[in-house]
Design goal:
By secondary structure, the chain is of the alpha/beta class. The chain has one domain: 5'-nuclease (Rossmann fold). It has 7 helices and 5 strands, in the order βααβαααβααββ. A 5-stranded parallel sheet has the order 3-2-1-4-5, sandwiched between helices. It is globular.
């Protein structure tokens, strides 16, 4: 049993800026809120970095004030801990994206369901919704 839900970065961005890209099941989950919904410090980093590189121009608000933006939708922040980082580094390959590995580790340790369409996450023993 999970304690709540954790957004993958693309899911968080779609929920905010392009909700039509999310399936109805995700809309229902976010509306009904059967548990807390978290946005990771990892996503804050990824959004700010990609915005700085000119890739996420539409996500300026999240890049400049992530905490304020997620609070608008009643999402909770999830910090990265040393244990999250350690597990992410120890996860077996095949997934090389360090940011995804950290989200996977956070979901495992915190017993959160990942809101993501990334089927590759399933290989790491996390529960994925979508």
């Amino acid at each position: 049993m999970t304690r709540g839900f954790l957004f993958d970065t693309h899911s968080l961005l779609w929920a905010t800026y392009a909700p039509e890209r999310l399936p109805a099941a995700v809309h229902n989950l976010l509306h009904d809120r059967d548990g807390d919904v978290f946005a990771s410090a990892i996503s804050a980093f990824e959004i700010a970095q990609k915005h700085r590189l000119g890739k996420l121009d539409f996500a300026r608000n999240h890049a400049e004030d992530f905490l304020r933006e997620i609070a608008k939708d009643d999402y909770l922040p999830l910090s990265l801990t040393a244990e999250h980082a350690r597990l992410a580094g120890a996860l077996p390959m095949p997934h090389r994206d360090a940011l995804d590995r950290m989200l996977i580790a956070q979901a495992q340790i915190e017993q959160l369901t990942l809101i993501s369409n990334e089927a590759l996450f399933d290989q790491f023993g996390v529960i994925r919704f979508w």
